[in-house]
Amino acid sequence: MRRGKVGAIVVAAGTSRRMGGVDKIFTQIAGKPLLAHTVEAFQRCHSIDQVVIVLSEDKLEEGRRLAKEHHWSKVIEVCPGGVRRQDSVREGLKRLSGCRWVVIHDGARPCVSVDLIERGVEEAHQSGAAIAAIPVKDTIKVVSQSFVEETPVRQNLWAVQTPQVFRFDIIDEAYRRAQGEVTDDATLVEQLGYRVKVYPGSDSNIKVTTPEDLSFAETILRSREQETSLP
To answer: Is this prediction's pTM over 0.85?
Structure first.
């Protein structure tokens, strides 16, 4: 049952500082630019009505050309981002039209699946705000000046991913009232006192931040291609 239009913001305006000079967003992996793998998951997702791609100013034309070449009918705009990630998300929010729900996803997570997006939308329908995450497997230490200050209970720790899905009025309010810098959208929602539901993400939903991650992402994507081609 439809419960209002769903818009997606694909945030890809970063500077790729840890990539050794490589522009990860347009690097070819598994036969196409990394960004194409990300956007096509949203293009295939039945729950998604609109997609806004947010890029750095110098990559806008390349992004628009890619959208045209791949016939992404759900992409309504390729727009410039801001200095910080949260500034880029805010720019994306401005471009969505008539959406009741918003899915925010890092463009550098090309292995996102349609199922992961769909489950996030469904969870948000129930709670108003839902984020993908996976339980932390390693013991985590809080360190200050090279010495351990605290060892949090691992069972309570989750590594947050995207997609992050919100009712539009909630995330819009969160960004209008944002104070300080945050590393994910849910933090702003939490600061307003809203409860955020965590739903299971995926170990394969990696974020490409280093050259080694590119190889890992390509392995995942190639493996999926082989699985879908099996009789």
So the answer is: yes
